[in-house]
Design goal:
Blueprint (H helix, E strand, L loop, with lengths): L12 H18 L3 E4 L2 H8 L14 E5 L5 E5 L3 H7 L4 E5 L14 H11 L6 E4 L11 H10 L4 E4 L1 H9 L3 H22 L9 H14 L4 E9 L21 E10 L2 E2 L2 E6 L6 H19 L7 H13 L12 E3 L6 E4 L13 E8 L15 E8 L6 E2 L8 E2 L5
Parallel strand pairs: 1-5, 3-4, 5-6, 10-16
Antiparallel strand pairs: 1-2, 2-3, 7-8, 8-9, 8-10, 11-12, 11-13, 13-14, 14-15
């Protein structure tokens, strides 16, 4: 009896066609005949195949996306069923150990598989794009890459990062919903964990554990970023892991968290004051941090550039009474990866288009001017996700509360 296994697919066939269409449009733009994808994010984007198998750096998997013809995947035999379950790829080239009774293989190794696949295409492949530049990454060893390049000496292997980034930069409605869901789950986990913090008893690790366990219970399937900072010794460290340090009354706790829902990431930063009555200067710094992000949100209009967004955020802080304490950048795009192209930088000329999702962030970090930023003694930052839309920007997370205090949970 045949059972319906469509529920195993990572996304719909219509979504699959949208992704392929965008990749091919960018391949034409950049003069690339085929993309050879190796990183889990790009393999998932192009096929729907997602597996913990890809967490190993010793079991190569490749996906070939041609400008014309059906894509193909190259991997070990034991993953064939997962490919069939999760993806829309029909051309699977699989090999395995000859010492095991797997059955009939349709290639002897990945090079043999690629060779057979290229021979089956109607169009000639002269330029192949690989993940070779900043923002992308070739997943496997450089030795393996050299073997492929040497074997196919008639092909020009070039950087395909711009084509990949151009396709992934504009999100589909399905991708946007997943980013929004990831943000909602993450926000709820942070607030519910803040509710349980006991100054003088709770450790940073307990805060991290509380947030991640709630995120996973809410449907998050991967945690990719988890910073918990408290105390003067850590405020100048922007990306440090949670420690066994006990948080103390009157301190600021800053958390910067990213989790993935159906592969798509959240990235939220929230702060909490471990007291009931927020000092006036703390309130000012927290408000300026939040309002700087809102200034960036207001600049997310179609036709503006990423540089316009960055300058809106930074200028808000620079024009405040805490303008001397601007040390952080203003964010990045977000999607399957926490940090995607384009980054939010003052000199970026990338134009905003409908469907771009940005993680807007910045803050105020007071420090001793004589010692430099390594002497930061307080840390205020806000981060939320926003979508560029036809009718203007829309928040996909939050927007978050300026800062939490113990009074919020009485």
């Amino acid at each position: 009896m045949n059972q319906d296994t469509s529920y195993l697919k990572s996304f719909s066939f219509e979504e699959y066609e949208l992704h392929l269409g965008k990749l091919r449009q960018q391949m034409v733009k950049h003069g690339i005949d085929m993309l050879l994808l190796s990183s889990p994010e790009n393999i998932y984007y192009a096929t729907g195949y997602r597996s913990w198998y890809l967490s190993s750096l010793f079991r190569p998997v490749f996906v070939a996306v041609p400008r014309e013809g059906e894509p193909a995947i190259f991997l070990r035999y034991l993953e064939k069923t997962t490919v069939q379950n999760t993806s829309w790829i029909e051309r699977i080239y699989y090999s395995g150990s000859t010492s095991r009774n797997y059955g009939v293989m349709n290639c002897t190794n990945y090079i043999d598989g690629i060779m057979k696949y290229l021979a089956s295409l109607n169009a000639e492949v002269k330029r192949v794009g690989i993940e070779a530049n900043a923002g992308q990454h070739f997943q496997w060893s450089l030795t393996l890459l050299k073997e492929i390049i040497d074997e196919f000496s008639q092909i020009d292997f070039v950087d395909g990062s711009s084509a990949i980034e151009g396709a992934r930069m504009i999100k589909t409605d399905w991708e946007i919903r997943n980013i929004e869901s990831a943000g909602y789950i993450t926000e709820r986990a942070i607030v519910d964990t803040f509710r349980e913090i006991l100054p003088g008893r709770t450790t940073e690790k307990e805060i991290a554990s509380g947030i991640t366990s709630r995120m996973c219970a809410g449907g998050i399937d991967k945690i990719s970023y988890l910073t918990v900072n408290s105390g003067a010794d850590k405020y100048s460290t922007f990306n440090s892991y949670a420690t066994s340090r006990v948080v103390q009354p009157g301190e600021i706790v800053l958390v910067d968290i990213s989790g993935h829902y159906e592969g798509y990431a959240s990235d939220l930063t929230r702060t909490m004051f471990l007291g009931k009555n927020l000092p006036d200067d703390y309130e000012d710094m927290a408000r300026i941090s939040m309002e700087s992000v809102h200034a960036g949100f207001a600049a997310m209009e179609n036709g503006n550039t990423i540089g316009d967004v960055s300058q809106a955020i930074e200028n808000f802080i620079l024009n405040s009474k805490y303008g001397d304490y601007l040390v952080h950048s203003s964010g990045h795009s977000i999607g399957l990866s926490v940090v995607e192209f384009p980054s939010i930088e003052n000199n970026s000329v990338v134009q905003l288009e409908t469907g771009m999702v940005l993680a807007l962030e910045n803050g105020v970090y007071p420090y001793d001017k004589k010692q430099g930023a390594e002497s930061i003694y307080l840390s205020f930052r806000m981060e939320d996700e926003a979508l560029t839309g036809i009718n203007g920007p829309r928040w996909l997370s939050g927007p978050g509360k300026m800062i939490y205090t113990l009074s919020d949970f009485v």
